[in-house]
Write a structure and sequence with these properties.
It contains 5 helices and 2 strands, in the order H-H-E-H-E-H-H. It has 112 residues and is an alpha+beta fold. Helix 1 packs across helix 5 and helix 2 packs across helix 3.
Length: 112
């Protein structure tokens, strides 16, 4: 579901003249480090988006890869350190700030 939100965010950012790439990193192990580094080398900012905690998930794995190989400005859209709840996927995406609007906000704030 978050890939769809990222695609919506990319479209919203394109309307503002900001070109982004969306990559579906579907596994953390094995992590496609070569793909991450390929895109990081041509980017000013890497933003990870995941339906997981900010700690110990995709964002952490990408940050580790970048810090070792190609330090890059980075931001994460993920669940803050909190207990999970039950609900519909759409309601939870909204509650935890994982919508396209939240992704756009993170990208714009990270460029400041």
């Amino acid at each position: 579901m978050l890939v769809q939100e990222a695609m919506k965010a990319a479209a919203l950012l394109a309307e503002q003249g900001i070109e982004v790439s969306v990559i579906n990193i579907h596994t953390i192990k094995p992590l496609d480090e070569a793909l991450i580094l390929e895109y990081a080398q041509r980017s000013k900012l890497v933003v990870t988006c995941e339906e997981h905690s900010k700690f110990g998930g995709l964002g952490s794995a990408v940050a580790e890869t970048l810090s070792k190989n190609h330090p890059t400005k980075m931001a994460m859209v993920a669940i803050n350190d909190t207990f999970g709840e039950s609900g519909t996927p759409a309601a939870l995406i909204e509650k935890y700030g994982l919508t396209a609007k939240d992704i756009v906000k993170t990208v714009l704030e990270s460029f400041k």
